[in-house]
Design brief:
Elements lengths: L3 E5 L2 H7 L7 H20 L6 E5 H9 L3 H12 L3 H9 L8 H4 L2 H14 L13
Parallel strand pairs: 1-2
Length: about 130
């Protein structure tokens, strides 16, 4: 069996994470938006039993609250992997310390936020809430 686990991160944070790629921050955000369109289409064609998505922010919050074992258990059940292996991996995870909204230039932040607002209701994860 093939299982697909898709990691989602908000467009603002994802763009800021590699702001130097694709000839700059705004272009990088637009490229990521294209990937979101593509991924949404591909995921919509897959059997729902073979894939799930997880939010990067949820993994970060679980880590900060010391609850990464619960995330690991849920993912291991879906993936058919030993929970202990994923728990060990998650124990070494470190959330990003970047604050995109605070660090990004205001005009660029507004443009990327507008891009996300225009399209996010059609993109995964919004298009597939049951796949979480």
């Amino acid at each position: 069996d093939v299982k697909v686990l898709v990691l989602h991160r908000g467009l603002i944070s994802a763009s800021w994470s590699h702001k130097e790629w694709d000839q700059g921050l705004l272009k990088h955000a637009r490229i990521l938006a294209l990937f979101m369109e593509y991924l949404t289409g591909v995921l919509g064609g897959l059997d729902p039993d073979m894939w799930r998505w997880v939010a990067y922010e949820d993994v970060c919050n679980a880590h900060l609250q010391g609850e990464h074992a619960a995330v690991a258990a849920a993912l291991s059940a879906f993936l058919g992997l030993p929970a202990a292996t994923l728990q060990r991996s998650f124990s070494h995870f470190r959330p990003s310390s970047k604050d995109a909204a605070a660090e990004m230039p205001g005009e660029t932040l507004r443009e990327i936020r507008a891009l996300e607002d225009r399209h996010s209701d059609r993109w995964f994860p919004s298009a597939f809430p049951g796949q979480r």
